[in-house]
Amino acid sequence: QLSCLVKMVTLHGIPKDLDSYPKDLLLFLSPSDYAATGSCRQYFASVGKANLDLLQRDSSERKQLLLEALACLKISGTQVNEENAEILGHLVCDLGEEYIRSSGENLLEQLSQCASFLPDQEEAIKSVISSGNTTFGPPSVWSASTLNELGGLIPIFDHSILQKIPK
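Structure tokens predicted for MSLN protein (167 residues):
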């Protein structure tokens, strides 16, 4: 339905008020389509707020969105800074374990909003959390507010992490 709606909305060119449309609609536009109304950074900041699950996780469209976002933000290695993580938003859910490991806590806030993870992503997240090299510190010093901040990641914590969290 959204794909069809995009065709209707863009029938006479890209509308100037595209930002006023639902973010999910942008998933079906390319950055080059959007370029007429704003920057690619602005486009991906909006796409990062969209419901990515409207596109299948392994779909070529979703993979292409991530590749184009990384190119737009000039992320050439696997290190994503906090500002770019915020722009990527939900797109961080598709970053591989190498990005999670080398970006460390920069991705945790966005990752905590992901619906699911691949096994290698889970291992990378657990490794970053267990290291204690985050602003949260090691699990042994966490409080209830820490757990609130990490909310969406708690389901992937294994026994080795959970047993270290103070009661």
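The chain has two domains: 1-74, 77-166.
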